[in-house]
């Protein structure tokens, strides 16, 4: 997996998104947490009947209150798992078929939103965002004829909770990217 994925450019980003220089020649590992050697994480996957782990790493998830919380993201051929590493509890399982699209800015930031129309959405940040998005798109496509959409915009909305919509705004400023998350009045 490492050599094959590292040799191919990540398709969802081609010509649309500004990328950091370090993301071009990064080795692709997939499982950065060694899930098979972790009894708790392995048990979560086997309980759900998922055997093929495509990606696992720690990410930051934006909570409904706007705080960034560390969590474990695991992607299999059929679902995304969000695990609280401190409480060692599965917080959320999202089947890939329920994901409508992934929203990203056009700038070189670490944020991405997983849009799930039948539930609430999920805003996360990871230095391995390119790999995460690529794995999700390829997994959805290989499982069915459906492919998760990838939308690039420096301003997008996501549902932080059933009754709360937030807007994420990205802006280039001297020395980096300014990210602002604001609650929308509906």
Automatic annotation (TrEMBL):
GO terms assigned for molecular function: cytoskeletal motor activity
Superkingdom per UniProt: Eukaryota
Cellular component annotations (GO), alphabetically ordered: myosin complex
TH1 domain segment(s): 17-186
Transmembrane domains' residue ranges: none
Matching InterPro entries: Myosin_TH1
Coiled-coil boundaries: none
PANTHER family reported in the protein's UniProt record: OS01G0621700 PROTEIN, TH1 DOMAIN-CONTAINING PROTEIN
Name of this chain's protein: TH1 domain-containing protein
Source organism: Ensete ventricosum (Abyssinian banana)
């Amino acid at each position: 997996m490492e050599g094959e994925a590292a040799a191919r450019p990540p398709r969802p980003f081609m010509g649309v998104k500004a990328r950091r220089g370090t993301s071009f020649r990064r080795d692709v590992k997939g499982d950065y947490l060694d899930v098979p050697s972790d009894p708790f994480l392995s048990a979560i996957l086997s309980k759900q009947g998922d055997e093929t782990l495509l990606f696992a790493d720690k990410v930051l998830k934006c909570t409904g209150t706007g705080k960034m919380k560390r969590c474990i993201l695991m992607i299999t051929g059929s679902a995304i798992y969000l695990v609280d590493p401190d409480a060692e509890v599965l917080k959320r399982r999202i089947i890939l078929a329920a994901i409508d699209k992934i929203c990203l800015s056009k700038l070189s930031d670490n944020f991405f939103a997983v849009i799930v129309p039948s539930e609430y959405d999920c805003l996360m940040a990871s230095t391995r965002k390119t790999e995460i998005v690529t794995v999700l798109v390829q997994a959805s496509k290989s499982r069915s004829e459906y492919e998760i959409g990838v939308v690039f915009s420096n301003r997008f909305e996501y549902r932080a909770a059933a009754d709360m919509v937030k807007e994420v705004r990205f802006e280039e400023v001297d020395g980096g990217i300014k990210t602002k998350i604001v609650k929308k009045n509906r």
